[in-house]
Amino acid sequence: MSKQQATAGISPREAEILSLVGEHRSNAEIGAQLFISVRTVETHVSSLLRKLDAADRRALADIAAQLTRPSHTPVALPTPLSPFIGRARERDALQRAVTAHRQVSAVGPGGVGKTRLVLAVAADLTGVFPDGVWFVDLVPVTDPAMVAAAVAAALGLGEQQGRSIHDAVPAALTDRRALLVLDNCEHVADGVAPFVERLLVRCPQVSVLATSRARLMVPFEWVYQVPPLSLDGESDAVALFRDRAAAVGWTVSDAQAGQVADLCRKLDGVALAIELAAARLPTLGLDGLVLGLSDHLRLIVGGYRADDRHRSVRAISTGVRRCSPATTWPCCAGSRCSSPPSPPWPPRPSPASTRCLRATSSKAWHGSPIRACSA
Length: 375
Description:
Layout: H1 3-7, H2 12-22, H3 27-34, H4 38-51, H5 57-68, E1 75-76, H6 88-100, E2 103-107, H7 114-124, E3 133-137, H8 147-155, H9 165-173, E4 179-183, H10 189-202, E5 207-212, E6 222-225, H11 236-247, H12 257-266, H13 271-279, H14 281-292, H15 296-299, H16 315-318, H17 351-358, H18 362-365
Parallel strand pairs: 1-3, 2-5, 2-6, 3-4, 4-5
């Protein structure tokens, strides 16, 4: 049945009620929202069943879902300002994980490149999720109880009379084959985990792809560990440095390739650190960058950014203040401390955590055992 055929002979009021039936509202909820009696709602529903030749209310809801489904896949993903470089193997692996599992968490330390990888994968999967791909940045959310409100805002859902925001999101996605991307979950994990569980239970065709510095610690979670950029051969790390250097008018010659590779190794293949280092080339030159790596936390600092987390590799250390005490204390990027600091958390990273971060070697990024931190 075409949209024109389905809506022929339906009054504006019946169209409103049909839309709410498609959201699986009860007659009482519909009446409360439209300020009409339940008996009036029942009359309109009976009329819709007859006009649309629907066998029952479920069939009516299916018709409503078909009428509201867009002709093209709605994609609400931010557009990156620089090209995505490398990570072909990681991109393929994460795609396969998302298509095979309903909740996937891309986990890794700050600056490793989780968000860019997830954005690339989400864009690749728009054909798999015909009812939409939505991106939700949770950085501005400070209260775990407001996670559902942030998702509702991304979906364009407003307040609905007689229905909480926690119910509005699952109701809008109930019959949809959609992908929800939740970025930066670590500081509101206590709100993300129950929200995702409720969403997946009520929306059997919805999948969730999350990024976080720590696992959500739920039994249905599939964890994909995002590694640093490759450092061997024609590495992704060197390719990223070349691209970002070209953006600031600096061409890396073949004779400098070995020096660039060594620089990327000293930066542990961390995407954010490599990008910030390339941005300093016009000021310091390649030799100056290499010499300055003895204090790379102070050296690798960029200009003003919309997101302060991306101004410096200190974000790897300062960002952990948002994690809850129940999560692993990652004062070393990618490592675990034997005894995490006692709450309340310090307003700034402690000297011990800063020393520990500076001492982190490239082995820590690849899952090798690392010594416990000590003050």
